[in-house]
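Pasting as-is:
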Amino acid sequence: MRRLQLLLSKNDTAKTDHRINVLPYQRRQLLWGVLGAFAALLKWVGANNPQWVETYYSRGLFRFIRYGIDYSVALLPFATMYILIPVLLIWTALTLRKWIKRSRNWSQRITDSLIAIVGVLGSVLFWFLVLWGYNYDRIPLERQLSISPRPLPLSEIQKELEEETAFIIEFRRQIPGLTDSMTFSHAQLPANLEKVLRSNLTVWLRSNGFPTPGRVRGRKMYPKGSFLRFSTAGLYFPFTGEGHIDPGLHPVQWPYVLTHELAHGYGFGDEGSCNFLAYVALVEEENPAIAYAGHLNYWRTLAIQYRRYEPEAYDQLRSNLPQGIQNDLNGINESMQRYPDLVPGLQYQMYDAYLKTQGIKEGMLNYNRVIMLVRAWREALKT
């Protein structure tokens, strides 16, 4: 009888200890769920009060976040994602192993799993919004620049395309050592490309009244094709605060894509605004190779829209371009075809849905808003 009482006492103690160990874990996960929900509520409030977001977050808290990132982990000589991804994978594996070894009934395991999911989703949402995501709801770029973008009819798109055609012909002609028999290569880009692009962007932003805290990094993400196989040329990752570019891109695409990602890092959420900032930052560069890259990438955006309605006229326009420009366009196509999509259409659908959840109603079509912004900006400069 004495031995039975001792055994029962040990079992009760084990159960009590187990409860003590489990409950704090559950509380932590539920706390992250609450924090995530609270952060989402603040985003809803911010979406209806962009002036608050602009004042207290984009020009307030986010500036300190930017400094904190850029003068800590961003000082590493490589992308912080190379550390973060393995750490997350190891942490996930250890968590699963710990969960599997728990000697508990399945109903309790299911409960723990649901609580864990709430905690993970809540923590991801919380940190995404706090570190960068609220920038989606700041005062729109066009309002701050006092410009009035509007949809362009086909005749005006054609006019824009003709103007850009003149630009790309002229700037390519000015690039030292680059002839019509050659294709644009890395030899035409400055060795300190990231520094040059960041300087161009920050100078333009400051001259137009925007803060440029910190020193946003633009990283190359190897292996080549890591993004391109998911129909993505670059990525700004809020959890590390760094912009990334797929080095599998053709060299003439690097300046535009990298500047686009740096623009995200300085607090601009929607894709059309970042495309616009990439354009205006590049085309004012004294280096003709950088200016050419900016004009050519914008030319391609216009050409896609024009070809949709006037395919024969577009084919004629393209065939009349100098051979050097045709070489560059063919080189871009070849680079993209080298890394075909692993899951065709998946990235478009997922990112389209993501943009819409962030308040960008047009989804992926937001990328093309650059045409309206550039035209409105040019019209404002003329007045």
